[in-house]
Amino acid sequence: MSSNSIRILAGNSHPALAKLIAKRLGTDLANVTVSKYSNQETAVTIGESVRDEDVYIIQSGCGEINDHLMELLIMINACKTASARRITAVLPCFPYARQDKKDKSRAPISAKLVANMLTVAGADHVITMDLHASQIQGFFDRPVDNLYGEPSVLRYIRENIPDWKNAIIVSPDAGGAKRATSIADHLDLDFALIHKERKKANEVSRMVLVGDVKDKVAILVDDMADTCGTLGLAAKTLMDNGASAVYAIVIHGVLSGKALDVINNSVLTRVVVTNTIPHAEKKKICPKLDTIDVSAVLAEAIRRTHNGESVSYLFGHATI
Amino acid sequence: MRNAKLFAGTSHLALAQRVATHLGVELAPVSLRRYTNRETTADLGCSVRDKDVYILQSGSMTTNDHLMEALIMVSAAKLASARKITVVMPYFPYSKQSKKKKRRGAISGKLVAGMLGVAGADHVITMDLHASQMSGFFTVPVDNLFSEPTLARWLAEHVVKEAGADHVAVVAKNAGGAKRVTALADRLGAGFALIHTDNAPSTRPFSRTPSTVALHTLPQTPRGPGMFATAVSAAMAPGSPLRASIERAESDEGSDGALDVRTIVDAGGRGKKKGKAKKAAKAKGADVDAAAAPRRAAFYVSPLTAAQEQPPTPEALELGDAGTPGVEISEVLNQSDDDDDDALDASRLLEMVNTPADEAGPSDLVHNAEALAQAAAGILEQRTHRALSLGRRPAAVPVDTPPSSDVPPMQRITSGTHLQSDPPVRPPVAVTSWHKKRTARITLVGDVSDKVVLLLDDMIDHPSSFLTAAEHLMVHCGARAVCIVAAHGLFSGSSLGEIEICPYVQSVIVTNSFPIPDELTTASSKLIQIDIAPVLAEAIRRNHNGESISYLFDRNPY
């Protein structure tokens, strides 16, 4: 009886992470071909039976984000029509997560649109990590497991940042204060806050530091780093205020545009990102980048989901 | 408004009346009744065929009934061939349940959004959603209005003008509110700061102001005679606010529920009278207030006390029935601005109920009750001497002397605290609470010394976290005064009473988005309600005329 075992499918967004996850689960990636027709339409072939199987499709929101989203939707739909018992979309980095509210007039809530598209395509369950706002869980009427990178970040700080006991956790904007305080609490450290007055997206005008970072190792914590303009300026602000060194730890390292130049030219000692988004190439250009591997968390969440065990254990504990 | 009808549910008639006045329309007739089995029924009293229907219903202390009422009205309008149905919910019920807390939480906000859509709402207008992401829960368009321009204007005209922008700081009492705080601070040109309470589970932040200490020791006494019994009977005496509110609740249930427009008008008028009455009381001075003190003390008795008093008097039974379930739920829910503490709060509640009686013996009881009365009287007296004192440090606020020093828990909290010159970041201060096991580390990030602090959040219900923050700001950080500012003021149970006797809070400024019984607003001298009816009316008008609503997001409509 091979019925209802785990099948791990991977799209083209992040094959390395998918391989790591499959390896940790002790299986191979299922045989799937995802290619494109010459007119740029995505073509998916599921190379083995998924009938009555528990299917997990790993696809991160990064790079060619629309192509990858479309791949995911088509794969979900292909499995649905191929009679999979249950289809779980595993999105280490949820695409369009920043468009989660009408922050100005007539702004679209694209995260909700993506949620609806996943549901319509046939996803029964969604596993994701550090949603930009956890309210996105409410955009689905399917179960959503929002995993946290925090335990892994805590472990990284304890193990890899020398003199972390003399550190201070800094949030680069007011919206992230909660995330920063949570980490500060767990490590029993102080925290500070940088308030930025933002005039346009991806453009920062003035920064105000609230809190005392003098002679301390400042650790900037955020959920997402895109162009790194904020991080660079924040690091400069911290150094100007007497910090002895500045680290940045970010869950989703999008690192698009001039991000690598900004990091290389900044006063940041190190920028740590998780591997929810591939950055192997970027590491070659930017020696300051470091990685936290979260494949264990995702693999364990998949295993627990498959076996019907509680996932909430993972919210507070890092897996090995 | 041509071809439009504005209906009001029973949750907040006063606000509905004001909105109607601003729009220059009459509230459309509707009969809302309860069957004897408590089912709600709605009967629209005029034709809505091919009309734009607006249904105003806020959240309230009987949320579920009023939600059901709104749903039934929407459904009734839908079946009556209304062209478009817009639900106006100034306070969106269940908006705090907008995400899964760490494990197995329901996203009830999403459920309510779905229910409105299923009932037939085509559009929703609401205000200051707890999380703006909630507008993604709906399948219909949502206009999330902001009270910030209205509040900011009032604050600019009253607080900032008197104290000067350099001497005003907007403060968040937890990290989650930091964004809201920086927005208001930018708008007012004021500084901002953040209070960080160490949330490690072993050191759950739990500190109470002295007044609250006294309150919470009260219920644990085994049917003590004397002060407590009189307090309860005083609370239930005919004409007392608590009694009145219960009677009102009962009559609401008993009556056939048809809207009586006269009472609506009355409600509007009472607001003005209240203001006069307050002025009169202040003019008469300390005597009047001292006389009022016992009544107030009675009013602060938590309904929980009555439920535990054995054997119950008929009044107590009544009180217990009306109050206890609500209090329990609010105790569990309302602490959770920090969002992840619900379970802990529940355990706190249990602990509170289970604390052995010997911790607060009868003698303690007398002490505490006396202290309560004394504290109330003292503060009231002091307040009469205090002019509009936003401009300078109110001499009345006892910073280094506790309101009454003979009560041990108060000493525990205030001992070893002194005013000193202030570095920008203070070391965390351990506050020992009434419960010996619990200590909390509170840190202020930022500087508030010699500033008027606006302690801002999107809603205030049970004020204990605000009071703890206010105490810290006044006692340890040298704040000049603390005003609590929130968009939605819920004030369940004895919340307003606790604020009233807290010496560290000067005033509490909220909008009238959520209905607060007149008895409670009259009894509270610190409560200031800002009218947001103009914003709602303008949003309805613009919506009806197909104009842009975004104008209202950062400006006042009048």
From TrEMBL, chain A:
Reaction it catalyzes: D-ribose 5-phosphate + ATP = 5-phospho-alpha-D-ribose 1-diphosphate + AMP + H(+)
Single Gene Ontology MF annotation: magnesium ion binding
GO cellular component: a single term: cytoplasm
Entry EC no(s): 2.7.6.1
BP GO annotations: 5-phosphoribose 1-diphosphate biosynthetic process; purine nucleotide biosynthetic process; ribonucleoside monophosphate biosynthetic process
Keyword Magnesium assigned: yes
Domain Ribose-phosphate pyrophosphokinase N-terminal per the UniProt entry, residue ranges: 6-122
Pathway where this protein functions: Metabolic intermediate biosynthesis; 5-phospho-alpha-D-ribose 1-diphosphate biosynthesis; 5-phospho-alpha-D-ribose 1-diphosphate from D-ribose 5-phosphate (route I): step 1/1
Keyword terms of this UniProt record: ATP-binding, Kinase, Magnesium, Metal-binding, Nucleotide biosynthesis, Nucleotide-binding, Transferase
Enzyme class (EC, first level): transferase
Family: Belongs to the ribose-phosphate pyrophosphokinase family.
Alphabetized NCBIfam families for the sequence: PRK01259.1 (NF002320), ribP_PPkin (TIGR01251)
Entry protein name: ribose-phosphate diphosphokinase
Organism of this sequence: Coemansia interrupta
From TrEMBL, chain B:
Name by which UniProt lists this protein: ribose-phosphate diphosphokinase
NCBIfam families: ribP_PPkin
GO molecular function: ATP binding; kinase activity; magnesium ion binding; ribose phosphate diphosphokinase activity
The Ribose-phosphate pyrophosphokinase N-terminal domain, residue ranges: 5-120
Cofactors: Mg(2+)
Lineage: Eukaryota, Fungi, Fungi incertae sedis, Zoopagomycota, Kickxellomycotina
Pfam families, A to Z: Pribosyl_synth (PF14572), Pribosyltran_N (PF13793)
Gene designation: PRS1
InterPro entries per UniProt: Pribosyltran_N (IPR029099), PRTase-like (IPR029057), PRTase_dom (IPR000836), Rib-P_diPkinase (IPR005946)
UniProt KW keywords: ATP-binding, Kinase, Magnesium, Metal-binding, Nucleotide biosynthesis, Nucleotide-binding, Transferase
EC class name: transferase
Pathway membership: Metabolic intermediate biosynthesis; 5-phospho-alpha-D-ribose 1-diphosphate biosynthesis; 5-phospho-alpha-D-ribose 1-diphosphate from D-ribose 5-phosphate (route I): step 1/1
Family listed: Belongs to the ribose-phosphate pyrophosphokinase family.
Protein EC: 2.7.6.1
GO cellular component, one term: cytoplasm
GO biological process annotation, one example: 5-phosphoribose 1-diphosphate biosynthetic process
Catalyzed reactions: D-ribose 5-phosphate + ATP = 5-phospho-alpha-D-ribose 1-diphosphate + AMP + H(+)
